């Protein structure tokens, strides 16, 4: 199998990689195992000696997380653990060189090379997303889940808010589907700068507005669709706020939760005033489509 890179936070100037071989049966459990740890992402590589090669990236090499994570991995059967300090430029150059355009769902074509474009196959919309220092290259299952959800949601002429926009890929996808207005929101200034540059690389003149700030800066605004691709501990506390920002019978799409969390998250969203008409399992991850309950 080829490498897969799961990024969970923007990259820093320097970082540490922990490379090792884990038992094959541990691969499916790895995302859940790593949730409590402050990591940048995980790369799943090929097979080696009956195990699976992985690399775990940490933003703070001086953190006690390094020793603790090594101990955790060893406890679960990891072997040949190696530590390496790398510059972010090294990671980006290597990843950009290896990544190729790919299909997502029924209608998306994700092209990571703005300077060497590859035309989208017939019937697909090309989204240019160059690997940069923000989450959302389109390769992660949680991002793909929302892209696929947008294929089945009426987006045309709707008002859309993308919370935790990262690279801006989901906001731009909503614009492709005909949204009347789209706002991409993120508390990370670097992510918003990346999103602005990503918007400029598209084949059309994007009108998406990208904003640095918390959800609270849009209190009182009303949206027809809210997208939120963040880990559960980040988006669940916002559920009540997002419910208030939705138009009557508005739709929210939540992604970034583990497949094992669907039941717990669904219950919490129902308590916050949503119904859950559908969910999608994509690899180790899941997404939920939630509709705002209206009361007479």
Please tag this protein with its features.
296 residues, 7-stranded mixed sheet, 5-stranded antiparallel sheet
Short description:
The protein contains nine helices and 15 strands. A hairpin with a 2-residue loop joins strand 3 and strand 4 (51-58). The chain has helices at 30-34, 65-75, 88-98, 141-150, 169-176, 189-200, 232-235, 239-245, 262-271, and strands spanning 4-7, 14-23, 41-48, 51-58, 79-87, 102-104, 108-111, 125-128, 159-163, 181-186, 209-212, 223-229, 246-258, 274-282, 285-292.
Structural write-up:
- The protein has 296 residues and is of the alpha/beta class.
- Helix content is 26%, strand content 34%.
- It is built from 9 helices and 15 strands.
- It has helices spanning 30-34, 65-75, 88-98, 141-150, 169-176, 189-200, 232-235, 239-245, 262-271; strands spanning 4-7, 14-23, 41-48, 51-58, 79-87, 102-104, 108-111, 125-128, 159-163, 181-186, 209-212, 223-229, 246-258, 274-282, 285-292.
- It has a 7-stranded mixed beta sheet, with helices on both faces.
- Helix 6 (189-200) links the parallel strand 10 (181-186) and strand 11 (209-212).
- Helix 4 (141-150) runs parallel beside helix 5 (169-176).
- The longest helix is centred in the middle third of the chain and has 12 residues, at 189-200.
- The radius of gyration is 19 Å and the shape is globular.
- The N and C termini lie far apart (53 Å).
- The model is unreliable at 1-12 (pLDDT under 50).
